[in-house]
Amino acid sequence: MSDQIIVMNNVCKDFKVLNRHEGLKGSIRDLFSRDYKVVSAVKDVSLSINRGEIIGYLGPNGAGKSTTIKMMTGVLEPTSGEIIVNGTVPYKDRTRNCENIGVVFGQRSQLWWSLPLVESFKLLRDIYLVDKKDYDDMMELYRSLVDIEPILNKPVRQMSLGQRTLSDILAAFLHNPATVFLDEPTIGLDVSMKAKIRELILGLNKEKKTTVILTTHDMGDVDALCKRVVIIDKGEKIYDNDISHLKSYFGSYRTLRLKLADDTWEEMVIDESKTDIMEIITKKQKEQRIKDIELQDISTEEVIKKIYEGGAA
Question: Nearest-CA neighbor of 303 among 260, 235, 239?
Fold first, then answer.
């Protein structure tokens, strides 16, 4: 059995967008217009993902992340190119593809709002034809990874945002899918709940060897979960490698933090190959007394930001 669980070869996705006109007459004209333009959301993306990997699939808003994920899940058909997920062409055999994937998309819950969580789990067990032993084993695994007893008999509508997110992730893994897609799983959560969800994802990935595709703007998620990062911008893949290699692009960059006389901190990212840090400190000292200095390696968040800005060109 091949280790490659997702393969994309030269995948493109184009959308026809109507060139709209202003005003009431323009709106009426648009009803009969054939004046369209073609927008390329994904351009010639090739990608292979191995079984058991946790991949950070990153990019700015409008980069093509969601379009790519929708093609992987079978929601959209590519305009051209080839895509295989778990040995299936997603858009040609949506039923079989859905049997082998789990999905958490933002705040779109797959749980039944008025039912206790355990009843939602039982319904999903029946929908996915999970036998009793496998279901019981999965529930025991959940108990070993996270304290689910307090929420099992709680209606979903009474849960906090963090509890609902946690429950949705558990539901996505319940039928033991080969691949799980997580879209911004920790958005809006406090630090404690983010840590709990990250530990849960790592635990499930380790125990079940589940491949996880993670889209997020929270670089804490990336640092905690992902060894490999794929970055897409304007529909094109611009980076595909591990995080340490990503940071090596910017090995000469450092984050300089200065605590000033008024106890505020000033922070700047500096390229040491082009700028003398001591000159900056000396210049700043003449403007205002410096009480403390910190020099740190560039963070993943800053690296991603620089790539978005074209810093890795």
Answer: 239
In which residue are the tokens 């709209």 written? Answer: 20
Residues 6+ apart with CB under 8 A from 3: 50, 51
* Chain segment 73-129, per-residue pLDDT in tens: 999 999 999 999 999 999 999 999 999 999 998 667 889 999 999 999 999 999 999
Predicted TM-score (pTM) of this structure = 0.79
The first and second tokens of residue 132, run together, are: 């009793």
pLDDT at 262 over 90: no
- C-alpha distances out from residue 152 to 10, 88, 116, Å: 44, 34, 6
The answer to whether 289 and 228 have CB atoms below 8 angstroms apart is: no
CA atoms within 13 A on the CB side of 208: 26
**Can you say whether residue 230 is alpha, beta or left, with left for phi > 0 and alpha for psi between -120 and 50 degrees?**
beta
| Block residue for tokens 């060139």 | 19
Beta-carbon contacts of 132 under 8 Å, excluding residues fewer than 6 positions away, are: none
Q: Which residues lie closer than 8 Å to 60 by C-beta, 6 or more apart?
A: 233, 308
Integer Rg of the chain from CA:
23
Task: Give the other-Cβ count within 10 Å of 181's Cβ.
Answer: 22
CA distance 78 to 44: 10
CA-closest candidate to residue 105, choices 78, 69, 57: 69
DSSP secondary structure code for residue 155 in this structure: B
pLDDT given for residue 290 in this prediction: 87
In tens, the pLDDT along 221-244 reads 888 899 899 998 889 998 898 877
The residue type of 243 is: I
Give me the amino acid identity at 33: S
